[in-house]
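Thread: quick sanity check before group meeting

JM: Hey all, I'm pulling together slides for Thursday and realized we never actually wrote out the predicted structure for the chain we discussed last week. Dropping the sequence here so it's in one place. If anyone has concerns about the input, flag it before I start.
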Amino acid sequence: MHFLFRDCVLDPERRELTRASEAVAVGPQVFDLLLFLVRNRDRVVSKDDLLDAVWDGRIVSESTVTSHINAVRKAIGDTGDAQQLVKTVPRKGFRFIGDVKEARSVNGTSTLPVDSGIDPARSTSNLPIAPSIAVLPFHSLCGDPDEAYFADGVVEEIITALSRVRWLFVIARNSSFIYRDCGFDIKQVGRELGVGYVLEGSMRKAAGRVRITGQLIDASTGAQLWAERFEGTLDDIFELQDRIAAGVAGAIAPRVELAEIERAKRKPTGSLNAYDFYLRGLAHVHRGTRESIELALPLFKKSIELDPDYAAAHAMAGWCYFWRKINGWCADRDVETEEGARLARRAVELGRDDAVALTRGAHALAHLAGDLDAGIALLDRAVFLNPNLASAWFLGGFLRTWHGESESAIAHFERAMRLNPLDPELYRMQAGIGMAHLFAGRIEAASHWAELSYRNLPSFLMVVGLIAATRALSGRITEAQQAMAQLRKLDPSIRISNLKDWLPIRRQEDLIIFSEGLRIAGMPEQ
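JM (edit): ok, ran it. Output follows.
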């Protein structure tokens, strides 16, 4: 029998304690003390109880007991001040007050004794083999349309938390948000997104408190499998998100060790105000326009001001500078490049175990500091931490494109599009596939993907350049010149001689084919 609490697993048979899926070294008496407290969590245990159970009735000093209690707290992430797991009851003793689940051990793996009625192996021709889910936008019941961003942010955090569970296939945010503000049938959603389960809910925020309701639905039958309501103060918003994620994961795959979902419990910041500004910034970034980036950047900077150690805010601020550079929107290119690189570097320092921060920070750093190898390594780590994070896959695809790994890049983009099949920002992935095909010498395929991307965001400078080059290389000179005229209108400073300052193209042969197409289309040399 295993005992699971917070992000810890206590295995009496193997005498092992793991925390966040990593082994914790503890002495024999510290292990025995923790085990005794957990097994007797329904009552206060006295010092005499501890002496009998841990020290075989031998008399030990008060300081020895205290030091062992402190060692227990340290091992499980508790403190004497917080006492969230081990509580000292004055003049009585101690009690373990954490929420504990017991699990059977089957072949060394914990399996929760829960019967949710869901068959994790269930699949149809259009479903992934792994359990799969889409989290739809939550309805904001605040009565203020301007507050919708907060509900969106809560859903994004739930998606991110669930995505860290390696056995769970999670549709990315932008695909599930297609169904905002429109009537839909759950079965239809399941078919269109290719998922077995759908999570929907609502949120009400008022007077410093928040109430979140959620229900898990079997997309093939429309049957409700799980429903719960969560309430708390705004200061507890991250705990509420964690509880929803844990509840959904427990319903979908009851035999999966609870520690997997516990690893999703990563609070992005201790400052709710900083989090609030971060969410406001995200709402603008997803639009991708010059105006939206100008609105987003000061919001991320305000978030950093309120919480200087907020990795994701640093990453998104750095990423805004990258997006300004690649689209020719910089007021002072050198100054903004340096500032963006500084923010991105700080993001990856602070967010070593934060997949979102690593993804945006690493991509921005590779572009702004010119270190493709480091960027690829960091994005690979982000994918390891969160294998369902679509942005990590497609931004990793871009860096591989610039690095000269066209086939690997295309595979990354395709994976991202599978995770985000209805993404309104699909133009980024289409653009990346187009450039990878160009570097692989497939001009017509490159042109096809570039034209698809252009329809979604005509101001995307890289795509306009790709269209000009591929049209020229395929002999459509007049159409190529038209695209070049638009390119030079978007950014008059681009020249053949400064292409590598614009895009970090590593291989000379890739730079040659792109330059040749742009030259034929009419781009000046100097």
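AS: nice. The two ends are 72 Å apart (CA to CA). Residues 105-126, 252-266 have pLDDT under 50 and may be disordered.
JM: adding both to the slides.
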